[in-house]
Amino acid sequence: MNISSMASSSSSVVVVDDDQVVNKYDVFISFRGVDTRDSFTSHVYSALCRKNVETYIDYKLERGHEISPALLKAIEDSKLSLVIFSQNYASSSWCLDELVHILKCKHRNGQLVVPVFHGIDPSHVRKQKGSYEVAFAQLQQRFHIDKVKEWRDALESAANLSGWDSLNTRPESKLVEAIVEDIINKLNSVYVSSSSSDDDAKGLVGISKRYEQVMSLLTIESYDIRVVGIWGIGGIGKTTLASVIFTRLISRFEGGCFLPNVREEAQKHGLNHLRTKLLSTLLEEETSSASNMVAGSTFARSRLRRKKVLIVLDDVNDSEQLELLVGDHDNWFGLGSRIIVTTRDIQVLRKGANEVYEVKELDFDEALQLFQLNAFKNSSPPSTDYIELSERVVDYTKGVPLALKVLGSYLHSRSKKEWESALNKLKKMPNMKIHSVLRISYDGLDEKEKDIFLDIVCFFKGEDRSLVENILDGCDLFADIGITDLINKSLITIIENRVWMHDLLQEMGWEIVRQESKDLGKRSRLWIADDVCRVLKTNTGTATIEGIFLDMSKMRDVDLNPEVFVNMYNLRLLKIYNSNNLIKGCKLHFTRGLQCLPDALRYLHWYGYPLKSLPSNFNPENLVVLEMPHSQIEQLWSENQYLDKLRKIDLSNSENLTQFPDLSQAPHLESMNLGGHRNLLQVPSYLEYFDKLTVLNLSGNSNLKNLKAIPQRIQYLDLEGTGIEELPSSIGSLDKLFSLILRNCKGLKKLSSNMHKLKSLDHLNLYGCSSLDNFPDLPMEIRYLNLSGTAIEQVPSQIEGLSNLQILDLGNCRRLKTAPKRIMPLTQACYEDYKPDIEMVSFMNCLNLDENARDNLMEYAQLRVWRMATAVASLRPTPADEDEQSQLFVCCPGNKIPSWFNYQSEGSSISIKLPSQWFRTNFLGFTLCVVVAFNNYKDYSSLDFQTQSEFTTSSGESYKFDTKLIGWVGNEGWDSFTVVRLVDADHLFLWYDHSFNLNVLKGDERENWCTNLRNATEVSFEFKPVDLFSDPVESCYVNKCGVCLIYAQDQDSTIVMDEDVGKLTVGESSKSKRPRQAYKPTGTSIFIDNGDEEEEGEPQPKRN
């Protein structure tokens, strides 16, 4: 089963009423009743109806002496007119008036017209011969000559159209089939070509895109039998989408059935009733007859197997429903049949569906459009105040169509004051119509799934999935399968291994908890600070309470009763935290002590725990996670504790802790954080045998001199700021070690000679290891290497062989004087199977670098840019790459823009005249460079560059785009605010960012940019230094900048790199003028446009 989803940037969600889905008429039939009413016309009409083609014939209305306005309206409301010419057609002025009006609609509105010549020669109709000649002889006596001429012209025009002759297609049954098939094909073309704006006007916002996406999964033209699921949360538009698809496709099938509300109907009437209804519809039998059929009888199956059908089963919530209704579909239905199933639970589709289409929320613009259609009934908002209020509603709904329609209709014609009141009310309680629809999914959960859902709603939204599963497994909730079921039912999603849910679903969950009781102490979960404080201060907690999360940043200090937790003996989850990291300490005080904590606790997080120890009567055997950072605790417990369930412990920065807690009875421990303990002298030997421990943080333990006991399966080891002097040789056996942090280990003088054996090592941070001046061989797999602040005098030679290295930080290496020609690997293999990523080399504050080293660095940067540009240009972006970026960054001391930047300017901005035809298909993008002057800059602040580019066309139109280019990550870690390093020298920053290569932009964005920008004649760039929060950095400024345009070149002039020695060789060109430099890294020649080559009308570079 494949799952297809639509990204929000291109998604469109549909909400319509049933009467909006069906057009008034597909076909209008014009015929002479006395000739064909009970014969040929009735056969055509029946065949069209069997194909679910909405067909109008004029005996629905009473005839008068002249054609009625209602009949004229019926013609106008039809997409196609079928004109059946017979022997006596021309004898009816009524028929002739119909024909005239039909042709007017054809010319005015593009209505399709299909003539059928039944028992008459088309030439007799065209030239009014035979019976038509006789008829017109009589008409001329009764009507004005102008009227008669109008009829003659109409007959001639209609007879000249492509149509059907009954004399050429026999028997008549085949003629009827051919006519109906022709009509269906023409109508399909009409539906496909209908514009999305028409759909939007009807409330079908963006239906065309979604329709096409599902059509690609249905593959209508293939002869297999396919089941396609449409999956998503309640109110997202699944039923509407299925309705539109059914209406537009049903005419292509020999039969069909749309079964709405399967879940509800099955509960009310049973599945046998639904099966009878489905069978009677598909076999075109009366319900009473179908109910007498034996379920699954051979005869019924035989009939169905010969019939190509379209079935929609709406709101299925149980695989048994699917099995009973469509069963073994490959053997039940005819070739080419299609079955569409809408559901909130993807598990229903696991076995039976070929494809699954996941319905996503609307993006902001679509949501605003849909809301305003309902709030203002197709008119514009009366004032800008309503636009702002509309945007607030859209932000609240987060793209759920049902919510947009309900709230739009509710707010229609209301005053601004009422809108404000309604929005304030929504903050306190949900709209019950929306709530009731969303709650259907919750009500279908079992009791443990409901507990998991409400725990996530109140406490764990946005948390790591593994952590949540560990905690809830400890609560005996079988979280692994439970979370999977919630995902299947569209109640939660997992993004980057974190648990998320739609805001409306969270509000629904909150309301469920609120409805448990008006008494706060009798609710199962408390998460609002005021509610928690009220219960704690009044000591009114009860056994009903299972979870409390208290954000102390939202409360004042309070002294609590020692017995505050006595009655909460079912409390499983307790988190007392501070979302404002700048506020230290605990606002809960226990001047009379704390009598107890519930033994039922599985999750205990208490920031700044104010007491010296846990209550003596507390039994921690059920604890899964114990987190007490910045606590006042001195001793965790006085005797050995059985901690078989404990998975994570965090006692970081609990500086009063006098001894390492005894965790010998916690064999399943996975994560331990004991950072910031100056009293820790050694690690207990038993840790070596903890085979589940993967994360160990001992940072800031300055008295820790050696590290003998290291768990063998450790993945993340943080020894920042410890007193360690050397790494043990046994470290080479840690084949799972992924990240090793040794920041600011001032006494570290050498690394283990076995470092190269760390095959999983990806991240090595040696920042601030000021005694370290040489390195052993490092593992080839390493991607991030930070040597900033070490005592090295030259770049270690083995770095050149680290083929996976992407980030190399050599900042603040004050003794560093030289740099090799190739600082990082630059071979062809490095860019095969290239994936978007960031590459960075920083020599920040390496002020002793000689001129040759800086030249080598710029030469390296030039070649690296071309490597990346070519690799990125060859990518075929996929939806998974959508948020990824490729960016090259190089930094070193210097005050000159490299000479190969052909456009240069003083100051923080540059404006250049673009060469003619600058935006050709071989354009690879811009490389940018700035020189930055620093004035007492402190490097604990991150530095980036907010960059605005503005493209201007010859007609004066301008297009602005913003991006943030990386600078450097400042000093960080435990000493980030105590050790300040100043930057005073000028530095050069150089980037290649693929977002400046317009040819790699995807989808509509790329198409729109290309269309607008290929006509640009000028571009400007402005660079502003900003910090991590995008605030301006005052202690530095850009005083020079440069721009370089890069192209792939298919001519003879190239510069190639000698892979062995890094030399540049200039190839000869057959042209008298060649680009200043070029480079051929992967079989594609690349050159820099230097603006020197004169072309007629081509502007030259603007150098300020």
TrEMBL record:
**PROSITE patterns the record matches:** TIR (PS50104)
What Enzyme Commission number(s) appear in the record? 3.2.2.6
What residue spans carry the region label Disordered? Answer: 1067-1104
Which Pfam families does UniProt cross-reference here?
C-JID, LRR_3, NB-ARC, TIR, WHD_ROQ1
Q: Which reaction does it catalyse?
A: NAD(+) + H2O = ADP-D-ribose + nicotinamide + H(+)
What superkingdom does the record give? Eukaryota
SMART domains from the xrefs? TIR
> Can the keyword Repeat be found in this entry's annotation?
yes
Name the UniProt record assigns to this protein: ADP-ribosyl cyclase/cyclic ADP-ribose hydrolase
GO MF term list: ADP binding; NAD+ nucleosidase activity, cyclic ADP-ribose generating
